[in-house]
Structure formats: C-alpha cells, structure tokens
Amino acid sequence: MPRDNMASLIQRVARQARITFRSPAGPAFGENLHRLQQLLDEVRAEDLHLAPRGPSAAAAASGGPPWAGVVPPVSYMHICETESFSMGVFLLRSGACIPLHDHPGMNGMLKVLYGTLRIACMDTLPAGAAAAPPPPAAGSGPCLRALFRSRQHYTPASPPCLLSPHTDNLHQIDAVDGPAAFLDILAPPYDPQHGRDCHYYRLLEGPPAGAEPPALPREVWLVETPQAADFWCGGEPYPGPRVCL
User: Fold this and answer.
1) Which regions span the lipid bilayer (predicted)?
2) Fewer CB within 10 Å, N side or C side of the chain?
C-alpha cells in the first residue's frame, strides 16, 4: 500500500502536538496525547530524509569512539518550536550517551528513527520520602531521591517512549551497537527563565549485592553534577519536509 505524503505526515504530527500541548490540563488532553502518539509511531527515518550513518572517517587511533575529540557525540536537527512545544531530531554516534537529565514540568515523546537506544527512566520522589541518608559518595552536590523505574531497549519498531512532569521525567539515553537517531518532542520547551533548565545527575550506588544488577523498580540516590566534559551537542540542518505552524 502506498504511504501518505510524508510532508503531510510530519506536518500532521506538528499540528497535533500544537493541539495537544496547548491545553495540557484540559479534559481532552489524554485523547489528544493518544492521537499524537499514534501519529508519531508512524514516522520513519526515510520520512525525514535520514539514513543511518556509518563510523566516522576520522577513526580514533586509541581505539576509542571514532568521533571522540573530532565531532560532537550528539547532534540536533531543529524542526520547529512554539511556546507550547519543540520538535527536532537527535543523532547519536555509535557509543554516544546523553547523560541522565531532567525535564522540569515538561511532557515529552521520543520515537527511534534508526538504530537501538537503551533508555533508563526515573521518577523524582518527594523530599521526605528518603528512608535513609545518601551514601558518603554523594560528595558536595545536591542529592535527589528517585525511583529507578525501567531500563529498556527501543528500536524503530518500538512505540514512542513517553515522559510526563511526574513519570519517567529523568532519563539517560545510550546508543547501542551503532549510531542511532530519534524524533523528540518536548512540551513546553526548555526555558531557564521560566524554571525549565536542564539538570544533569549521576546515579549513586552502594556496593553490589551480587553478580546480577538489582531488580527494577527500586529507589536510588542521585547527585546533581555539571554537564559531563565528554558530552556536548552540535547542530545540523534538518533535511526533511518543511513544517509550517
């Protein structure tokens, strides 16, 4: 069966995102969000004129990632932005990681376009929920108690990964076994002047209890950290169909 006009598909995604996030507290939010999720699930890499990328030509002689010190480990392609949401594509080189970070007061949707991502998701717990003090390894950074909810692999065949202001709001994204790309919607966009700045965290773990990783979900301590020195995000032009809002 021939596919619809792809410009129409990404345009419909943007229009539905505008409708959905214009009134996130409205009675129709759940229905609108489900419709947006359905549309986003249809998007494929070729719809946005993207193709998986092989290893960088500038291979690192040290045996590290081929992009190390040469190009950004992560690039962003801006598609559109309004006061209520932003949409773009993140491209991760093989072995790249977007460190654990938050989305204050925001909703989000992530759809893998190519490659495989491992996404670890966590919830912030109330300040008084801690049953024990943070471990000594916390250092001087602010500590946060969180619920480590899941760690899953996502591929282009997977449904979108969702986050809300209270559920799965913190996540870490790793490219697994090669480069990867995902379409990203955040609502509303990051805006430090309105209290929506991005904060990075490090997971604090005690001594391992055994060979197997601890079961999920489980409560954990996080410590706020500066942005990692080996993580930065470059910009690239978006090659896909134009979106007008």
Assistant:
1) none
2) N
The secondary structure of residue 1, as a DSSP letter, is -
For the chain, percent helix, then strand, then coil, each to nearest 5?
Answer: 20, 35, 45
Backbone angles phi, psi at 218, to 5 degrees: -155, 155
Burial profile 77-113: b = 16 or more Cβ within 10 angstroms, e = fewer: bebbebebbbbbbbbbbbbbbbbbbbbbebbbbbbbb
Secondary structure (3-state) at 14: helix
Q: Which of 23-32, 39-48, 108-117, 120-129 is the least confident region?
A: 120-129
- Packed helices 29-42 and 6-22: angle between N→C axes, nearest 10 degrees: 160
Q: Confirm if 37 and 109 have CB atoms less than 8 A apart.
A: yes
The answer to whether 201 and 139 have CB atoms below 8 angstroms apart is no
Q: Token match 């999920």: residue?
A: 216
**Looking at the domain that runs over 72-127+141-206+213-235, which CATH code has it been given?**
2.60.120.10
Domain boundaries, the chain: 72-127+141-206+213-235
Residue 95 pLDDT grade (very low, low, confident, very high; cuts 50, 70, 90): very high
Quick one: pLDDT at residue 16? 97
CA distance 245 to 243: 7
pLDDT for the residue numbered 35: 97
pTM beyond 0.85: yes
CA angle 85-203-223, nearest 5°? 80
